[in-house]
Structures are given as structure tokens and as C-alpha cells.
Batch of 2 targets.
Target 1
Amino acid sequence: MPKLIVHGQIRNDDWQVVPAQATELPNGKLIVPLALWREAATRLAGRGPLGVWLQPDDDPAEIADALPSLAVVAVDFPKFADGRGYSTAALLRTRYGYQGELRAIGEVLRDQFFYLTRCGFDALQPPEGRYTDAQLEAALASLADFSEPYQGAIDRPEPVWRRHARGGLAA
Amino acid sequence: MYRYDAFDQRIVDERVAQFRDQTSRYLAGELSEDEYRPLRLQNGLYIQKQAPMLRIAVPYGLLNSRQLRRLAHIARSYDKGYGHFSTRQNLQFNWPALEDVPRILEELAEVEMHAIQTSGNCIRNFTSDPFAGVAGDERIDPRPWAEILRQWATFHPEFAYLPRKFKIAVNGAEEDRAVIQCHDIGLDLVRDAAGEVGFRVLVGGGLGRTPVIGKEIAPFVPWRDIITYCEAILRVYNRFGRRDNMYKARIKILVNALGIEAFRAQVEEEWRHSRGGPSTLTETEVARVAAHFVDPDYRTLPGDDTGYRAQLVQDKAFAAWAKRNVRAHKQPGYASVMLSLKKTGIAPGDITDTQLDLVADLADRFSFGEARATHEQNLVLADVEQSRLKELWQLLRAAGLATPNIGLLTDMICCPGGDFCNLANAKSIPVAEAIQQRFDDLDYLHDIGELEINISGCMNACGHHHVGHIGILGVDKKGEEWYQITVGGAQGNDASLGKVIGPSFARVEVPDVIERLIETYLDNRFEDERFIDTARRIGIEPFKTRVYAQREANRKVANA
Ligand code: SF4
């Protein structure tokens, strides 16, 4: 079963991510690609909890109205160096007010964990097999690479100079 | 200059720990080459021909003496005893070992320095006017704004994996000395009719393969809103900039494809949602940062120093140096001094460990402990009393830092090129040296007057060849190194891109070509007209004709 980091805890995941080209729908809890969701929204509605995943160039506005009914929204990083998903996440959390699970899928690596969580992802799903259990455990440390980031983002909307009185010299 | 508080220090310390861990995971085989590459690049670490190259951030060019000494120490202990100032006011080391880099970063963090975001597809080091705070034509000091924005951009989580690198420059003076028209975002500090401070914002400028002059996207963004406004631009770029072709991935391509009106509309739409949010700047924060940039304790002096005036009359060599390398200062009795890193025989921008130590000492003795790097790859001691200029000159001369050539032909901008850089088509340093050797007569140089020659080893244009009055670009012709020449480029308020004069040249031909161009200029100039003004008036034809006529003649002789 794939591993997932949710709010800084490792746990097993029972959702299935349906690939972009899939034609058959497997049983179980599904995270479907936007294109499939678009054409089969009604058929999917009766199946219980549902998730949708977005590609880097998908417009999150398309699912804005459906967000309250979605149990998971996932954003795919086909390559970790493709940073569009960070903006997608930020938009989902701010403009579209999404409060549910926001999951990063695809090439999700520990050296991006910090930025991903800052942009509003609360669930991180590294590729299956990429990390051993011990490595994944160690990777949790990357969530806290920086204790007081400068700028506001989704996790801490206020910049450091609003969060704290600044100017105290280094110890 | 800005001093770190506990928050700034913690961030650089945590960065060192993070990078040490990443590097050890890479060395242990846990991180692949592809996974490690962007991480090391965002720490300024390239793998080059000879060894890694480490690019250290010098935010908007400011350095204090403690930092200069530390850089000297790093050059001595981890490199071959020298460093190289780049056209982005940063300092590069060409020979560090990968394993040493975490330790080097730790040594830098101890003096409030780092290598954060000096490379990679992220927001790069901010650049600004090397005469900020001392220039007479300054409207608003750009340094506090550059610092505020530097902090905002540091580890910005949404913009760490942009389509391509992203460069921002800030200018606050009448004369643009920060080349804001050639940046992804150019910020020009201005006041509106009510006297309120804000920014005229340019977007989509840049050199490289497709040189473009930036376009105005907003005539006035109030200072409080500058962060949310920049974020709006970056978000549009991050989402819609091209990622399929790295040569078409800069923001200038997106701006050109959409047109500035449509691009502006998208940014405004984005900004409508974020404007006024928590990133809106406060007076408290601006005042906190600005307090680091108040004037040093200048002495009250009556005006121009009479002793200095007399020395200029008595000593011709001193006067020649002062004419080129000393600049007027807003404070009566003071001057700014430029230290030339363009001595013939030394690669432009290179500086040794002993010179770095000396500059630190001189900064302490003559200029309130601070120095500045310029994008022309020279250094500045910004606050020197006129009465002490001669003493300073003697010390600089002894150290090879007083070549009186600032702004002259031999003060070339030159990228590291094929001697160091993997991307190069051709070498650039030997070209610069051959030109310097050809024009080693100081009187002739002064007669030619202001002239900027910029050399890049490839299309990436690190040597800003497009905006050189004469630009030299290394090109690859069937595996051989050739050079394309442009004429008529300029930086500054009336920035323009040079025009190619014709087919490219072999390396040995380049000094001759430059000589022919200079002759054409001298034959055509009116009185004190500068090269660039003559070139603009007469166009490139006369230059072209002379250069290629001569080349034909040479060929005939060679083949006879
Ligand atoms: S212009 Fe080209 S050769 Fe020169 S430093 Fe830049 S990338 Fe390297």
C-alpha cells in the first residue's frame, strides 16, 4: 500500500490515483483525472467519496464549484522541477477556499516537502518505492527545514515582520 | 548596510544545515544527479569544466570589510587564491571541491553571507545602483527596497521552480545604473504627484538569446503594494510561462506572446485578489530596514578640497586616475572611488585574496568599512574624503587596483567564457586580453573616451554583449570559435541593442576589427561626441564598410 505523509505523519493510503489515460474505473476510493471527472461527473457522484487530480496546466477554477463535494484534491508533479503545481495549490487554498485534503502526487521528493507544505499541501505522496521506510521517516525532518520563513504563504499567511517584532540581533 | 537580526541569521544557518544534508545524501547515492542539480544550483553551485563553480551572493553589491576578509580567506583556503566578480555583482570561485562547499557556506553564514538563489530557475540575487545613497541624482535610496524584496524572494515557496531564472533590479536615480530595462522585472523608484513613494514597473526585459528591452507594465505601484504586485507577476509567469523549450522560457517570451496589454490584464486580475493582503508592507518594517542605510558619520567639510585640487594640477598620473576613477559625491568634500579590476593581463573582474584583504583594510581606513561591487565588474569605495584621495590612490596603485580606465575601452565587461564555462561557444578572456594589449596607450585610450566593450562567450549573454557600445559574442562555426561583432548597444536610460555588423571573425582578427571600428569613429566624430553617439548618428554602415574592406585587403595579401 502506498505511503502518504499527512500533517507530518506517515500513514498508509487507501486511495487509488486513476491514471490519465484510464478507461475502466477500478473499485475503491478513487482520485480521478480532471478530464474524466469532467465527462463522468454524474456517474462518479454515486460512488461515495471522490477525489480529482489536476495536471500542471489544468485550471483549478474548473473544479471550484465542486470543491465542497470532493474528499481529496491532488496536484500532479510529473517532474519535481515543474513548479506550476505550487501556484495551483495556492489558488485552491486562497481564491477557491478549499479546506479539504490537498495532496501532492507524482515526483514528490523530500527536498521539496517544505515548499509544498508552505503552498498548502497537507498530504504528500512520494512515488511508491522511492523511499525506504527508514528514508521516509528521516525525510520528515525536511518539513521543518526553516523555522521562520520570511514571506507569507498558505501555511503562515503573514510575513515574518508581521508575525514577530524584528530587529533583535543574532544571539 | 543591512545587518542580520536573529531571524536572518537563523535562515542562513538553517540553509547551511539543509545543504550539508542534501550534499551528503547526494554523495551517499541517495539523491540522483538530476535531483541534486536544482538543489545545488539554488545554492550557486555549478559543475564546470575544471571543478565546481560556487557563486556567492553579494546582495545589490554591498560588502563590508569583515565579509571581504572572509572572501579572501575562502579564496586562499578553498580556491586557488582568487575570485571573480560577475556582471550580477556576485563573486564566483572557480575551484572549490564539492565536499568543501557546505563548510564554505558555513564560513559565509558567520559573516552574514550565503549563496542562496544565485543560480537555478528561481528569483535571483537583486541588483541595484552601486552608487546608491551617495549619488547626487538619487530620487530615493534603492537599498532598503532591494533588501525588503531580497527577503521576500528568499525561499519563496511558490516560485522556487519557475520556468526559468528570474532577475530583478532596482533603481532609484535619474540615471539608471542598474540596467532595469534588461531585467525580468525592473523597478524604478519614483514619487507620485502627492509625493508618495512607489515603483514604475518594467517587465520582460532581458538579454540572452532573444534580447528585449523591458516594457512598462505599471506606471506607479504604491510602495505598500510592491510585494503583492510582484507576486501577481510571478504567479502569472509561473503558471503560463513556457516550459517546453528552455530557450523560450523566460518571461519576456510570455510577455511578447500575449502582448503587454493582455499580460497586464492577467496580472491585474491576479493582483485584485491579493492586493491589501498580509504581504502589504508596513511603515514599521520599511523603517526598520531603512534604518540600516542612513548616511555614515560624514565630517562637515566646506566643499571641494583645495589640497586635492592642487594635487590634480601637480601630478599628471594622479589626475589621469582621478579623471576616470573618482566620482562626485552628494556630500561636500567627499568622493566615490572606483577600483579597476581591468588591468591588462588579468581576466576582467578577477581579484586575488591579497587584494581582497587590502580592499577590506582600505574600506576600514577610508570608507566606513564598506565596499561595493558594480555590474561592470569593478569595486567602489563610496565615501572617501577628497583630502585623502591621493594617499588612497598610492595604496591602490601599489596593489594593481588603480588602472585609470573606468568607462574606457579597456574597462571591458567579460564573462568567464570557454576557459571556465560549460556552455561557452568560445573563450572570452583571451579576447579581452588581446584587445587590452592592442590598446595599451593611455593617452590614446583617453582620446577615444567613453566606450563600453562587452564580451560574452555564448548567447546566454552573461557579458551583456547586446548592450555594449561594441559587443563581442562567441559563436560556434563547425566546431571552431568565432566572434560576432555588434555596434550601437547601450545600457542606462537610453538603452538599446547593438546591431550585428556582418559575418563573424576568427579570434586573431578581433583586435584589428576593434581598431577599424575605433578609426571609423574617430574619423566621424564631432568634437567631444562619444562613440555611442557617433554610432547612433551615422549608423552601422560606415563601420561595416571599413571593417570588411580591410578584411578583404588582408585576405588578398595573404593569398597573393
Ligand atoms: S555568456 Fe555563455 S560562456 Fe559566458 S558565462 Fe554565460 S553561459 Fe558561460
Target 2
Amino acid sequence: MTLMDRRRRSDTLRGKVAIVGIGEVPTRRVIPDRTMYGLNAEAAKIAIADAGLRKEDINGLVTDGAAALATMAEYIGIRPTFATGVSMQGASGASATTVAASAINGGLADTVLVVMGNSRLDRAVPGGASVRSEWEEAYGPAAGAGTGYAQIYTRHMYEFGTTQEQMAIVAANQRFNAQENENAVFHGQPASKEDVLSSRYINYPLRILESVMPCDGAAALIMTRADRAKSFPHRPVYLLGAGMEQSNANIWQTDRITTTPVKTSAARAFQMSGYGPGDMQFAEFYDCYTILVAVTLEDAGFVEKGEIGPFYESTDTTYKGSFPINTDGGQLSGGQPGLAGGFRHVIEGARQIMGRGGGRQVALNDLCMVNG
Amino acid sequence: MTTEYNKPLPRLVNEAVSRPFWDAAKRHELVMPRCLNCSNMFFYPREQCPNCYSDNTEWVPVSGKGRVYSYTVVYQPANRAFQEETPYIFAIVQLNEGPRIPTNLLECEIDGVELEMPVEVVFDDVTDDVTLVKFKPA
Ligand SMILES: [Zn+2]
């Protein structure tokens, strides 16, 4: 074995992780009165006890592609710093275990729960009953996902004195940026703060210009080993740190709705990178609604909790400004092509670091934080 | 009571778990699940306590009093059946006993809501079979 072979081997998962507990709900033709999430939660309970752990010790969650991660985390009562669903048909269990090992080896979690299960009864429910179908839909939630975000907005106004005028700046600055992005759905359609404030409500306090527009589109990226990256045509965009936290599915299940999982995920990303919020030169932050950009910037540590309103009043966050945010217009002005809407923040961060921002290129383009 | 109620009714995730809540509402009683192992009162109901994983739970009556934790005023509902009601208040109420519940606020102007405002339960018999749990200023 050559030295290079040996080094390669030490870079693999070999010998890096171990399974320390198992749990199984007895298999039956039908398990009456139990949902898929309930069965998963019971299997989790058994495995956690088998390992001699408490649920608080679990900080990773890997499940199959059929389960909604947030609902799973809610049932099991955990907030893992790594969570993903693995869809590989019959190989999902082995694949999920491998993904869990990779996450541990990569420092994204220490102790990962891998769990999957099935309830045939559950699948028989017409139209797929859910926590929302039982507890929210009869009370008339708003169009889109705005019901929960509006309640975060209302609560943020109550706790910190944030105003709708301040949140309108979030939307207006991003719309300014989109005027230099020909790929943005609202390219060529400027909108001022006043335009935002005079647009109609979807659901108070959210106006239509503070809410994403569903669109068609797609995005992709290529990642390779750092030691190969310099031989490619563009300036390499290195991943310096990453963090996650999986929170609740339902806003009313969250203790403090004005604090998001970004408080944990950003702290972990900064810790891994060796940098802090003050080192970042620009940011690309998930923005289905204005209020989400606002609270997540707070939680990432760019300002103190509750200070985002005054920050937007005093800081130029356009691509020309001292701290550019959502330089391509974000989803609010770029549009939301499904899950590629959030992916745009990764793409735009990379584009700016490569120096390919064109008319919207930021001046300082070495360090960016992306929140998806 | 209307016989032509055209809005969505609750579609239960698991009859075996949450039927007692809806049956109680029909009797105009508000009940919450509580864990007999760790005393955690939780909502929504589920098969095991989300705090300690015990499946030994009971239903207990609660006061029906609480406070507005947050709210939104709906102008454009997800379901068109609600359009004629707009604008209306969709809120999260935190019960005095602790759990939070999504609901509507009745008998309240849309610009008259304040967070932490005290509210009390109202049982809305929307059909012969279904009673929704709503709140009004206390
Ligand atoms: Zn308990």
C-alpha cells in the first residue's frame, strides 16, 4: 500500500462510527390505531433507551423519504442539528445508515437516530390527514405558508416594536437588486418601500409584496474535492462551515416563535469555519416572507435579537451597500421555483464569490453566509 | 346551526387518539391530554407523550381561558370557502394551563386584537356532528 493509498483510506468512514442501540416495534399485518409517525416515535423510544441515552442526547435524524422531517422531529420531541430523508427504495435503510455515518464523520452530529416505519392504516386515510388538516384547516389559514410567518411577524412587532415600514425596506432593497438580475421574475419591475406598503394584504401583517411568488425554474451546482478545485475555470467557492437544526412542523408547537433554528445552525456553521458574523461581507438568506429574512439575520448574530428593524433603517443592504443581502433579489423578487427557490441563495452566494455577479457584483466577495 | 356548512371540517389524523377531544367539544367541554408519567400537558394529542415517551396519558378538563399568543388577519384564505368571512382572525391561543391551540377569535374587531389579551373558549357547533373550538375576548 502506498502512502497515498493509506491516506485515502484514513479519509473514509472506515472505523469512524458505531451503532450503539437498536429498537423495533413488532411487525404485524396491521397495527390498529397507530400512525406512521407514532410507530416511528415508539421505535425511537426503544432504540434511545437501548443505548442508555435520553432523547436530549440525539442530535441527528435520518429517516426515509416518505416521512416529513419536521413532523418526525415533532413527534419524537427532538431538535437535531442534522436531519435528512433518504429515498432509495428498498435500500433506504442501509443508505440512511451510511448517510448518518457520513454526518457524524463530518461533524454535523454526534449521535444520530436512524428511524423508518410504515402504517398501512395511515395510508388508508383519504386525502392524507395531517396535524394541519385536523387542527388548522377548519379555522381558515391564509393562502400559501403565510399563516405561521404572519404570526411570527405579529409577535415580533409585539415583543420588539418592529414595524411594517421597516419590513417594507427588506422587500424594496431586494427588488432594487433584482433590477440587475435578468433571471429574476420581477426584473424590470421596480418597487419602492411605498409600493410595498400600499400593496394588498394576503394576511395581516403580510402584504403581497412581502410574500414569494410561486414560479417555474431550476438550479444546479457542481462540488468537488478541494484539492482538485483549483484546476477548474472559475474561482473555487470553498465551504468553510455548515450547521443545521430541524425544528417543528407547526409554528404553534414552538416555544418562542420569534427565534428560529438559525440560532443553532448559524452558531455551528461559524464555529466550524472559525469566523463570526462580523467577518461576513454579504449574506444570502432564505426569504419566503420579509419577516423570515429579518428574524434569521438576528438569529445568525448579525444584530441583537429585536434589532433588525433599526438595522434595515440604517444599513444599505442593496448590492451597492455596506452589507448586501439577497443580491439577486432573493425569492421575494427573483421568484420561488419550488425548492429551487431556496437553492438560489447558494447559487447566488457562489456566483458572487466567483466574481460573476455582473451589474450586481458586490465589492467584497470573499466571505458569505447562506441560509436555506 | 346551519345545514349548509361548506367549509372544511377537521380531518382526524388518528381517531383512536383524538376522538375524545372532538367528542368533548361537542359537549361544550375543552379537554387536553396529560401524561400520567411526567404530568406534561400537551397539545396536539399523539400516541405517546412528546416529553417522556410514556403512552400512559389521560384527558383532563381545562378552564377554557387563555391569552392571545399571536394572530394574523386573513384576507386571502387558502380555501375559497372562507372568502365570504374575510377579513377574519386566525390566532394561536395559549391556554392558562400551558398548551397552545390554533383557533379563530370571534366577537373581536380585526384592529382590536392585542397580544397577551385574555380570551375564553367559545364552542361553535358548525354542523350537527362537529363543534369547533374558538375563542372570544374575556
Ligand atoms: Zn410524559
